[in-house]
Amino acid sequence: MTDLVKAIRHDWTLDEIKALFAQPFNDLLFQAQTAHRKYFDPNAVQISSLLSIKTGACPEDCSYCPQSAKFETELERERLLPIEEVKQAALNAKQNGASRFCMGAAWRNPTDKNLDKVIEMISTVKDLGMETCVTLGMLTAQQTKKLKAAGLDYYNHNLDTSPEYYKEIITTRTYQDRLDTLENVRAENINVCCGGIVGMGETDLDRAALLQQLANLPQHPQSVPINLLVQVENTPLYGTDVLDPIEFVRTIAVARVIMPKSTVRLSAGRNDMSEEMQALCFLAGANSIFYGEKLLTTPNPAENKDMELFDRLGIKPNAEKHHESSETAAA
Length: 331
Ligand code: SAM
Ligand code: DTB
Ligand code: SF4
Hints:
ten-stranded parallel sheet; binds S-adenosylmethionine; alpha/beta
C-alpha cells in the first residue's frame, strides 16, 4: 500500500490520481479492495430504486440527456406525478427489496409550489419506512432548509464531468452553480449523493479530474454514483465511442481508493454491461446499484436478473455497513 491511500484526504493532486489510474490493473484492484474492506462489508450492496416524478420538457441542454426539450427524443413528456402513483411505485420498490427510493424531476430547479408537492412525496415514502432521495436540479438555501425539515435523507446533484470538459456538455448552467447547490445541501446536513458520467468522449485526464473534484469537496459525498453514459438516439452524445470496460472498472476503483468511506454506486449503464463486468465493479469497490427495470427513462436490468447475479456472487442486498462511523454522517 502506498502512502497515498492511508487517510481520508481532501487534497488530492491530479498527478496522484493519474498515478492511481496508471497502475497495473491487479495492483489497483487490490488497493481498492483493501480500502473497501477497511470500511465496509465486502459482500454487501445497497439497493436504491428510481422513479421519474416529472419527465421530459426540461429547459436545460445537458447533451447526454433524453429529457432536454432541446433534443427530439421519443420521450413522452409528463406532468408531476400524482402522490398515489408515487406511493404505489415506492411500495413496489420496497416489496422488491429496495431500501432507498429516489425521485427525479426534469427541472432546472423546482418552483416553490412544486417543492411543496415533492415534500408531500418525501413524507409519504418515509412513512413506508424507506430512505428518501430526490434530484430536482438547483436549490436555493431556503428550499434546502424545507427539504431538511421534511426529513429528506439524500439529495442527488452530480458534477457530471471535469470542470474543463463540462462546457462541451452543458451550456445552460455552470460548474459553479452545481458546487453552490452542493454547498446548500451540505450546510443543511442532508446526505450528498454526487458523482458523474463517464463514456461521454472525455479524456483519461477528465475522468481523473472529475474524481479529484469529488474527493476534494469539503466533505466526501456520502454516495458517489458513477454513471456510464446511456446513449439515447437524437441526443448530441448518441454515437460517442464506447468507453473501454476496463477503464470504467478503473474509474470505480480509483473512486473507492480516494473516497474510502463513501458508498460508490454502479449507476446508469448496467444494461449495457456483462455480468462479469459488473462483478469486477463490485470487486473494485462499488457497493450500491440502481435496482428496477427502469432508471428514469431508460432500461435497467430486471430485478430477478440482479438477484440471480447477487446470489451467484454471494452478495447480500442492503446490508452495507460502515465498520466505523462515517466521516460525514448526517444527523
Ligand atoms: N434535472 C435534474 C438535474 O439534472 O440536476 C435532476 C435529474 S437528472 C436526469 C440526474 C442525473 O442523471 C444527471 O445529472 C446525470 O448525471 C444523469 N443522467 C441523465 N441522463 C443520463 C444518461 N443518458 N446516461 C447517464 N446518466 C445520465
Ligand atoms: C444518477 O447519478 N443517475 C440516475 C440518478 N442519479 C438520478 C439517473 C440516470 C439516468 C439515466 C438516463 C435515464 O434513464 O433517463
Ligand atoms: Fe434537465 Fe437534468 Fe436532463 Fe439536464 S440532466 S436536461 S437538467 S433533466
